[in-house]
Backbone:
């Protein structure tokens, strides 16, 4: 018996793409289908096709800044994962209107989902979040959800729109939403390990944010100078030449405790300010970071997870779009795709990653599931379909 099923379509037509996915998935055996799609699709047509073909199946997903299929990096595709109901019991809910999200709303979201799961094996639960990547609400929403989740491991990613930075969407059941999030609880007897990692190390240079709007994730001044001027001087180019590739190769981070958390730049603005993918406040200290080789760091991260789960079944990954851009700049996309293929990675390129209530940038964050064993089969989660 297969615990998970993978599907991929590179069809440009939304209806044909969904039909191709449905043909690859045994829907009657699936607890939930999770998909990641290019924002180049006509989303109204895509939603209508999903409603027709997946009408009796729990269905969640989001738009991307690129997809990761069984074959590696994709662009302009839709890929999906079907979780077999003998191994996974899954419950999902959409959260609309993220502004002002508080702990009470978080509890009202999580508690009913938790109650619908089989009461046996409650220790085998993890949470996945998908969130509008241009909502600027990740920090607040993730913190409140993490509090409501308690000790349940939690990871996820922020939806993208192929680097257009216009509008991103999450999907729940029959429609796409903006300014929204989807929370999925997965209960399984399979071994799993939630993880997050990156390949960046701190340099000596440090800077202080001296004018900023945390609500808009925009830094106006660094060290009392226009933010873009200071950053351009650091990376050695003129402000008008700042691009996503430059941001990927020259990241900045804040230090919290003993850990460095990257705060990736999204764009440079006409007034010389910088807008980030994560919130930054007045007085934040930024550290310049260096890029070490990415793929050896990723291989070490996977090897560490395998110590916990044993031989891997597959990995669900949320991969920052700036990592993909760095790989492209260094000519390593094919090598990375081969690594993902060999390690059975499925996922998407994000506008931010979620790990244990924290909003991250330039990480590979996800969950690795181990292979079913005889003991696992005997512990099959009862189906609540």
Residues:
């Amino acid at each position: 018996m297969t615990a998970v099923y993978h599907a991929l379509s590179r069809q440009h037509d939304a209806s044909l793409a969904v039909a191709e996915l449905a043909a690859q998935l045994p829907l009657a055996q699936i607890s939930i289908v999770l998909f990641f799609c290019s924002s180049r699709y006509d989303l109204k047509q895509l939603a209508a096709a999903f409603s027709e073909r997946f009408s009796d199946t729990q269905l969640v997903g989001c738009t991307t800044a690129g997809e990761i299929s069984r074959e590696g990096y994709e662009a302009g595709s839709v890929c999906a994962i079907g979780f077999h109901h003998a191994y996974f019991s899954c419950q999902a809910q959409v959260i609309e209107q993220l502004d002002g999200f508080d702990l009470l709303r978080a509890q009202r979201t999580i508690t009913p989902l938790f109650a619908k799961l089989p009461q046996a094996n409650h220790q085998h639960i993890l949470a996945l979040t998908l969130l509008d990547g241009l909502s600027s609400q990740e920090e607040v929403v993730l913190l409140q959800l993490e509090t409501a989740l308690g000790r349940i491991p939690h990871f996820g990613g922020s939806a993208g729109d192929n680097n257009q930075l216009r509008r991103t969407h999450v999907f729940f059941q029959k429609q796409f939403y903006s300014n929204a999030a989807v929370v999925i609880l997965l209960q399984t007897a399979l071994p799993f390990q939630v993880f997050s990692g990156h390949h960046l190390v701190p340099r000596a240079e440090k800077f202080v944010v001296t004018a900023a709007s945390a609500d808009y994730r925009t830094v106006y001044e660094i060290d009392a100078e226009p933010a873009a001027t200071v950053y351009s001087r650091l990376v050695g180019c003129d402000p008008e030449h700042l691009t996503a590739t430059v941001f990927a190769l020259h990241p900045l981070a804040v230090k919290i405790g003993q850990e460095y958390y990257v705060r990736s730049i999204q764009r440079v603005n006409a007034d010389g300010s910088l807008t980030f993918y994560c919130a930054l406040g007045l007085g934040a200290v930024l550290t310049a970071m260096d890029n070490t080789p990415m793929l050896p760091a990723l291989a070490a991260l996977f090897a560490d997870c395998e110590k916990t789960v044993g031989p891997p079944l597959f990995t669900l990954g949320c991969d920052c779009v700036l990592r993909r851009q760095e790989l492209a700049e260094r000519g390593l996309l094919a090598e990375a795709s081969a690594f993902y293929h060999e390690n059975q990675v499925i996922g998407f390129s994000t506008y931010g990653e979620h790990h244990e209530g924290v909003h991250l940038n330039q990480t590979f964050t996800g969950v690795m599931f181990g292979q079913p064993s005889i003991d696992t089969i005997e512990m099959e989660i009862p189906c609540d379909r």
User: Anything to note?
Assistant: The chain has two domains: 4-196+295-378, 200-291. The CA atoms of residues 320 and 350 lie 5 Å apart. DSSP finds ten helices and 26 strands in the chain.
